[in-house]
Specification:
By secondary structure, the protein is α/β, with parallel strands linked by helices.
Protein backbone atom coordinates (compact mmCIF):
# COMPACT_ATOMS: atom_id res chain seq x y z
CA UNK A 1 0.00 0.00 0.00
CA UNK A 2 1.10 3.58 -0.61
CA UNK A 3 2.71 4.64 2.67
CA UNK A 4 1.10 7.77 4.02
CA UNK A 5 4.35 8.83 5.71
CA UNK A 6 6.05 8.98 2.30
CA UNK A 7 3.30 11.22 0.92
CA UNK A 8 3.31 13.51 3.95
CA UNK A 9 7.10 13.83 3.87
CA UNK A 10 7.07 14.75 0.18
CA UNK A 11 4.39 17.45 0.44
CA UNK A 12 6.65 20.31 -0.64
CA UNK A 13 7.72 18.64 -3.88
CA UNK A 14 4.23 17.40 -4.70
CA UNK A 15 2.83 20.90 -4.13
CA UNK A 16 5.60 22.46 -6.24
CA UNK A 17 4.81 20.18 -9.18
CA UNK A 18 1.05 20.76 -8.91
CA UNK A 19 1.58 24.52 -8.91
CA UNK A 20 3.92 24.25 -11.88
CA UNK A 21 1.53 22.14 -13.96
CA UNK A 22 -1.95 23.43 -13.11
CA UNK A 23 -1.22 26.60 -11.08
CA UNK A 24 -2.69 25.04 -7.95
CA UNK A 25 -1.64 26.98 -4.82
CA UNK A 26 0.52 24.97 -2.44
CA UNK A 27 -1.89 25.44 0.47
CA UNK A 28 -4.75 24.05 -1.63
CA UNK A 29 -2.69 21.02 -2.67
CA UNK A 30 -2.04 20.40 1.01
CA UNK A 31 -5.66 20.65 2.21
CA UNK A 32 -7.49 19.19 -0.81
CA UNK A 33 -5.01 16.59 -2.06
CA UNK A 34 -2.33 15.56 0.41
CA UNK A 35 -4.35 15.59 3.64
CA UNK A 36 -7.34 13.63 2.26
CA UNK A 37 -4.98 11.07 0.69
CA UNK A 38 -3.05 10.64 3.94
CA UNK A 39 -6.35 10.18 5.80
CA UNK A 40 -7.46 7.58 3.24
CA UNK A 41 -4.18 5.67 3.59
CA UNK A 42 -4.58 5.60 7.37
CA UNK A 43 -8.23 4.52 7.12
CA UNK A 44 -7.43 1.61 4.80
CA UNK A 45 -4.44 0.55 6.90
CA UNK A 46 -6.71 0.24 9.94
CA UNK A 47 -9.81 -1.25 8.36
CA UNK A 48 -8.99 -3.01 5.08
CA UNK A 49 -8.04 -6.29 6.72
CA UNK A 50 -11.38 -6.55 8.51
CA UNK A 51 -13.41 -5.42 5.48
CA UNK A 52 -11.75 -7.90 3.13
CA UNK A 53 -11.70 -10.84 5.57
CA UNK A 54 -13.85 -13.89 4.93
CA UNK A 55 -17.19 -13.71 6.73
CA UNK A 56 -20.26 -15.76 7.47
CA UNK A 57 -23.44 -14.20 6.07
CA UNK A 58 -26.33 -13.91 8.50
CA UNK A 59 -29.95 -14.89 8.03
CA UNK A 60 -29.50 -18.54 7.04
CA UNK A 61 -32.88 -20.09 6.15
CA UNK A 62 -34.08 -23.08 8.19
CA UNK A 63 -33.86 -25.46 5.22
CA UNK A 64 -30.06 -24.95 5.07
CA UNK A 65 -29.71 -26.45 8.53
CA UNK A 66 -26.35 -28.19 8.86
CA UNK A 67 -24.72 -26.24 6.03
CA UNK A 68 -22.02 -23.61 6.49
CA UNK A 69 -21.53 -20.67 4.13
CA UNK A 70 -18.58 -18.27 4.00
CA UNK A 71 -18.07 -15.28 1.69
CA UNK A 72 -14.52 -14.75 0.39
CA UNK A 73 -13.44 -11.65 -1.53
CA UNK A 74 -11.15 -12.15 -4.53
CA UNK A 75 -9.16 -9.54 -6.49
CA UNK A 76 -10.59 -8.43 -9.83
CA UNK A 77 -7.23 -9.00 -11.53
CA UNK A 78 -5.56 -6.20 -13.49
CA UNK A 79 -7.13 -2.77 -12.98
CA UNK A 80 -6.53 0.17 -15.31
CA UNK A 81 -6.74 3.67 -13.80
CA UNK A 82 -7.12 6.59 -16.20
CA UNK A 83 -6.23 9.46 -13.90
CA UNK A 84 -7.73 12.92 -13.75
CA UNK A 85 -5.98 16.24 -13.19
CA UNK A 86 -8.16 18.43 -10.97
CA UNK A 87 -7.18 16.54 -7.80
CA UNK A 88 -4.06 14.85 -9.14
CA UNK A 89 -2.93 13.32 -5.84
CA UNK A 90 -6.13 12.67 -3.90
CA UNK A 91 -8.20 10.93 -6.57
CA UNK A 92 -5.43 8.87 -8.15
CA UNK A 93 -3.95 8.05 -4.75
CA UNK A 94 -7.20 6.78 -3.23
CA UNK A 95 -8.03 4.71 -6.32
CA UNK A 96 -4.53 3.26 -6.30
CA UNK A 97 -4.66 2.37 -2.60
CA UNK A 98 -8.06 0.70 -2.90
CA UNK A 99 -7.06 -1.36 -5.93
CA UNK A 100 -3.75 -2.49 -4.43
CA UNK A 101 -5.04 -3.27 -0.95
CA UNK A 102 -7.67 -5.55 -2.51
CA UNK A 103 -4.87 -7.56 -4.14
CA UNK A 104 -5.12 -6.32 -7.71
CA UNK A 105 -2.40 -5.49 -10.19
CA UNK A 106 -2.71 -1.90 -11.41
CA UNK A 107 -1.74 -0.02 -14.56
CA UNK A 108 -1.99 3.78 -14.43
CA UNK A 109 -2.33 6.26 -17.29
CA UNK A 110 -1.52 9.65 -15.72
CA UNK A 111 -3.35 12.76 -16.87
CA UNK A 112 -1.70 14.62 -19.74
CA UNK A 113 -2.16 17.83 -17.70
CA UNK A 114 -0.37 16.63 -14.56
CA UNK A 115 2.12 13.99 -15.71
CA UNK A 116 4.97 15.05 -13.41
CA UNK A 117 2.83 15.49 -10.31
CA UNK A 118 1.28 12.05 -10.69
CA UNK A 119 4.56 10.45 -11.73
CA UNK A 120 6.02 11.68 -8.44
CA UNK A 121 3.15 10.09 -6.54
CA UNK A 122 3.58 6.83 -8.45
CA UNK A 123 7.32 6.84 -7.75
CA UNK A 124 6.48 7.06 -4.04
CA UNK A 125 4.19 4.06 -4.45
CA UNK A 126 6.89 2.07 -6.24
CA UNK A 127 9.41 3.02 -3.56
CA UNK A 128 7.04 1.75 -0.85
CA UNK A 129 8.19 -1.80 -1.66
CA UNK A 130 4.94 -3.12 -3.03
CA UNK A 131 4.95 -6.87 -2.27
CA UNK A 132 5.41 -9.52 -4.96
CA UNK A 133 6.59 -7.01 -7.55
CA UNK A 134 8.26 -8.72 -10.49
CA UNK A 135 9.09 -7.80 -14.04
CA UNK A 136 6.97 -10.65 -15.42
CA UNK A 137 3.76 -9.61 -13.65
CA UNK A 138 4.32 -6.18 -12.07
CA UNK A 139 1.91 -5.10 -9.37
CA UNK A 140 2.08 -1.47 -10.53
CA UNK A 141 2.70 -0.31 -14.10
CA UNK A 142 2.76 3.24 -15.44
CA UNK A 143 2.16 4.08 -19.10
CA UNK A 144 2.66 7.36 -20.93
CA UNK A 145 0.42 10.29 -20.03
CA UNK A 146 -0.58 11.11 -23.62
CA UNK A 147 -4.12 10.51 -24.84
CA UNK A 148 -3.10 7.77 -27.25
CA UNK A 149 -1.97 5.68 -24.26
CA UNK A 150 -5.44 5.91 -22.76
CA UNK A 151 -7.01 4.58 -25.95
CA UNK A 152 -4.41 1.82 -26.13
CA UNK A 153 -5.09 0.86 -22.53
CA UNK A 154 -8.76 0.26 -23.30
CA UNK A 155 -7.72 -2.15 -26.05
CA UNK A 156 -5.51 -4.17 -23.68
CA UNK A 157 -6.99 -7.71 -23.55
CA UNK A 158 -5.37 -8.32 -20.14
CA UNK A 159 -7.47 -5.64 -18.44
CA UNK A 160 -10.19 -6.77 -16.01
CA UNK A 161 -11.54 -3.41 -14.79
CA UNK A 162 -11.26 0.25 -15.76
CA UNK A 163 -11.46 3.22 -13.37
CA UNK A 164 -11.97 6.72 -14.77
CA UNK A 165 -12.75 10.12 -13.28
CA UNK A 166 -13.53 12.97 -15.66
CA UNK A 167 -16.04 14.46 -18.05
CA UNK A 168 -19.26 12.82 -19.15
CA UNK A 169 -18.18 13.12 -22.79
CA UNK A 170 -14.98 11.11 -22.28
CA UNK A 171 -16.75 8.78 -19.87
CA UNK A 172 -19.20 7.79 -22.61
CA UNK A 173 -16.32 6.99 -24.95
CA UNK A 174 -14.67 4.85 -22.29
CA UNK A 175 -17.94 3.07 -21.55
CA UNK A 176 -18.37 2.31 -25.24
CA UNK A 177 -14.82 0.97 -25.43
CA UNK A 178 -15.36 -1.22 -22.37
CA UNK A 179 -18.64 -2.51 -23.76
CA UNK A 180 -16.99 -3.99 -26.84
CA UNK A 181 -14.75 -6.17 -24.68
CA UNK A 182 -17.25 -6.64 -21.81
CA UNK A 183 -14.75 -5.03 -19.42
CA UNK A 184 -16.26 -3.82 -16.16
CA UNK A 185 -15.75 -0.16 -15.28
CA UNK A 186 -16.13 2.37 -12.49
CA UNK A 187 -16.85 5.84 -13.91
CA UNK A 188 -17.05 9.01 -11.82
CA UNK A 189 -18.30 11.65 -14.23
CA UNK A 190 -19.27 15.31 -14.09
CA UNK A 191 -21.69 16.06 -11.28
CA UNK A 192 -24.37 18.72 -10.75
CA UNK A 193 -24.90 18.59 -7.01
CA UNK A 194 -27.61 20.57 -5.26
CA UNK A 195 -27.69 22.48 -1.99
CA UNK A 196 -30.95 22.40 0.00
CA UNK A 197 -31.74 25.38 2.24
CA UNK A 198 -34.77 25.18 4.53
CA UNK A 199 -36.31 27.87 6.71
CA UNK A 200 -34.47 26.70 9.85
CA UNK A 201 -31.03 27.11 8.23
CA UNK A 202 -28.36 29.63 9.13
CA UNK A 203 -28.77 31.50 5.84
CA UNK A 204 -25.54 33.45 6.11
CA UNK A 205 -23.57 30.28 6.78
CA UNK A 206 -25.38 28.51 3.92
CA UNK A 207 -24.49 31.30 1.47
CA UNK A 208 -20.85 31.31 2.55
CA UNK A 209 -20.63 27.51 2.39
CA UNK A 210 -22.09 27.34 -1.13
CA UNK A 211 -19.77 30.12 -2.28
CA UNK A 212 -16.73 28.38 -0.76
CA UNK A 213 -17.67 25.08 -2.39
CA UNK A 214 -18.00 26.77 -5.79
CA UNK A 215 -14.65 28.55 -5.47
CA UNK A 216 -12.73 25.57 -4.09
CA UNK A 217 -10.09 24.32 -6.53
CA UNK A 218 -11.01 27.14 -8.94
CA UNK A 219 -14.42 25.52 -9.42
CA UNK A 220 -12.90 22.30 -10.81
CA UNK A 221 -14.81 20.05 -8.41
CA UNK A 222 -17.42 17.54 -9.53
CA UNK A 223 -19.40 17.76 -6.28
CA UNK A 224 -19.49 21.55 -6.08
CA UNK A 225 -23.15 22.70 -5.84
CA UNK A 226 -24.32 23.95 -9.22
CA UNK A 227 -27.80 24.90 -7.99
CA UNK A 228 -29.59 25.69 -4.74
CA UNK A 229 -33.10 24.51 -3.88
CA UNK A 230 -34.36 27.06 -1.38
CA UNK A 231 -37.50 27.17 0.73
CA UNK A 232 -39.54 30.16 -0.41
CA UNK A 233 -39.58 31.89 2.99
CA UNK A 234 -35.76 32.30 3.06
CA UNK A 235 -35.13 32.78 -0.66
CA UNK A 236 -34.81 36.58 -0.61
CA UNK A 237 -32.52 36.55 2.40
CA UNK A 238 -30.24 33.97 0.76
CA UNK A 239 -30.22 36.04 -2.42
CA UNK A 240 -29.11 39.13 -0.47
CA UNK A 241 -26.39 37.22 1.40
CA UNK A 242 -25.12 35.67 -1.83
CA UNK A 243 -25.03 39.03 -3.66
CA UNK A 244 -22.82 40.49 -0.93
CA UNK A 245 -20.33 37.66 -1.37
CA UNK A 246 -19.99 38.55 -5.06
Amino acid sequence: MLRWLSVAADTDELARLAELEIAKPSWETLVSDVMPLVAACQWHARRAGRILAARRPGGRPWWLLGQSVRVHRAPLGRVGIIATWNYPLQLLGVQLVQALVAGNRVVVKPSERTPRTQRRLLDLALAARIPDHSEARPVLEVVSADRASGAALLDDPDLDHVVFTGSTRIGRRIAEGCATSLTASTLELSGHDSAFIFDDADVRLAARSIWAALCNNAGQTCMAPRRALVQRSVYRELDRKSTRLN
